[in-house]
Amino acid sequence: MFNDVIRPRRLRTSDNLRRLVRETRISPDSLIWPVFVVEGENIYREIPSLPGQFHYSPDQLDLMVQHAQAHGVSRVLLFGLPKDKDEQGSGAWDENGIVQQAIRKIKHLDPAMYIVTDVCMCEYTSHGHCGILCGHEVDNDQTLTVLAKTALSHARAGADMVAPSDMMDGRVAAIRQALDENGYQNVPIMSYAAKFASSFYGPFREAAGSAPSFGDRRAYQMDPHNGREAMRECALDVQEGADILMIKPAMAYLDLVRAARERFDLPIACYAVSGEYAMIKAAAKAGLIDEHGILCESAVCMYRAGADILITYYACELADAIRKGEIG
Hints:
Elements: H1 15-20, E1 31-38, E2 44-47, E3 50-56, H2 61-71, E4 75-81, H3 98-109, E5 114-119, E6 133-134, E7 137-138, H4 140-157, E8 161-164, H5 171-181, E9 190-195, H6 202-208, H7 228-240, E10 244-248, H8 254-263, E11 268-272, H9 274-285, H10 291-305, E12 309-312, H11 315-323
Parallel strand pairs: 1-3, 1-4, 1-12, 4-5, 5-8, 9-10, 10-11, 11-12
Antiparallel strand pairs: 2-3, 6-7
Helix pairs in contact: 3-4, 4-5
């Protein structure tokens, strides 16, 4: 016989009451929408591997800004696709590179749009790896120099925040020093602190044209088996001056989102990556799931695990759901 005085169901009897006692609350202010910008003109094309997401040339970014504004999304994470690539990835820090062009264009269209930029080399190098090569190995310390130059060029173009995703040792410190020495002390760094060598990235590599031409990235991205090492990576980035820590991917790594939340006082972000988005899209297209229900539920779980910030291709849909009271 159960204790009929203690009835948890009492707090579930109406939508009004359930919303009152929710433990996890979500705001559109915590959402960041990843956006792909590509060199050229009159380019507005859907990305086959990411249905509902698009490549935008700078002259078409008004479409992106209008879409974001219509859904109440005011923060984006920019990825650039250059026309030309070389061994050094020199387009990454070109003052008129694709991301730099996009920053200036977006700030002209909507000065209030908060722009975070991905700082990495893989989209810009002819070999597709995330740094400068020495033979077939990425040279960690040579790469730090170009990452710092890239982050500084983004700040000069008007980026509000930079987000290094390369997983080189020491890159947060190198970027922080470059920013501070050039008068950008107030530009925060959101570090991809624990970025795993994950199979969930497949659709992104098509979207960003960033697949490596040989080998893989396991020598610098993390082994999915290692949780304690992820916390060590986070701790090192805190010491180097990171302002926000990111766990990537999100869905299969929520244990590490929780661990980071419990250990560190900094804001914790997680990135619901391309494979997570594509799986939901594919299952919904096959009639196997309720897409809207799944995207909302999975987002709630990420926040419940401890995320303060969610980077997601579903940012606009989630902002609508929050505004309608469907989650939040």
